[in-house]
Design brief:
single chain, 253 residues, alpha/beta, Lambda Exonuclease, Chain A, four-stranded mixed beta sheet, three-stranded mixed beta sheet, 11 helices, 7 strands, 12% strand, globular
Length: 253
């Protein structure tokens, strides 16, 4: 199998860019353990069609509110926007940006609650997201992008699940019981946010194209390809000597 032209998805570019713990490995530009773990997952996907199952309430919410998040972004920047469906690639990277408009790329994130939303304010942008956006900018040959956090209501089905779980934890006659209604009213504050102004529920992180980061990323992609080639060889011949020894020992008796 040929890994010499393997492309790295922009959404995973940050994993490839993580620095190894050893100063010597860092100086040499070697891959980190995080990068290697991701590449083994990529190997399993390309070689055997393996798909890692990612199904939790955080991911489900992000997928289900994506269209609404784009609508809110449209209203904020006063420009009609549509979800981008086109996948772009170059010699090193591949990716499908959320929104592209007037030479600006937008990637939307949907926090689950107030805490996961507000905790972004005092922090610098997550390096994984910075790498992802730079990957998109390189693919599109543009110089500016935004990571946009939009806090939206939890999807109806998830709210119903949360309500059911809460109800089954207690000894309530019905969902109309005053004790349950009081408890649910508190719980609902962590699920419904639309009664607060959208200006309080959206954050824009501007990202300028970082040519040094992109150059480093492409160097890492080259190292990733070599790792995959070597890993494939090791996998293919892993048992050769052991089997020879086992067979030799068995037939020697």
């Amino acid at each position: 199998m040929d890994f010499s032209k393997t492309l790295i998805h922009c959404s995973s570019l940050g994993k490839i860019l993580t620095d190894p713990k050893s100063a010597a490995d860092k100086q040499a530009g070697n891959l980190s353990q995080t990068a290697k773990s991701y590449l083994i997952e990529l190997y399993a996907k390309e070689r055997y069609g393996f798909e890692k199952e990612l199904d939790n309430k955080y991911i489900r919410k992000g997928n289900e509110v994506e269209f609404e998040a784009i609508q809110e972004l449209s209203l904020q920047i006063r420009m009609p926007l549509e979800k981008n469906e086109e996948t772009f690639e170059n010699e090193h990277l591949v990716g499908t940006p959320d929104v592209v408009c007037n030479n600006i790329v937008y990637d939307l994130k949907s926090p689950f609650n107030w805490l996961t939303f507000l905790s972004n304010i005092p922090s610098e942008l997550d390096p994984m997201y910075e790498a992802q956006l730079n990957g998109y900018m390189d693919l599109l040959n543009i110089d500016k992008g935004y990571i946009v956090y939009v806090l939206l209501d939890t999807p109806f089905e998830e709210i119903e699940k949360q309500k059911y779980y809460l109800f089954t934890k207690g000894s309530y006659i019905s969902e109309e019981s005053p004790e349950f209604l009081k408890l649910w009213a508190e719980k609902e504050k962590n699920l419904i946010f639309s009664h607060h102004p959208i200006e309080e529920r959206i954050l824009f992180f501007e990202v300028q194209r970082n040519h040094e980061l992109i150059y480093k990323a492409k160097q890492k992609v080259e190292k990733a390809r070599l790792f995959l080639e070597e890993f494939h060889h090791k996998h293919k011949w892993f048992n050769q000597n052991s089997l020879k020894n086992i067979i030799h020992e068995l037939h020697k008796q």
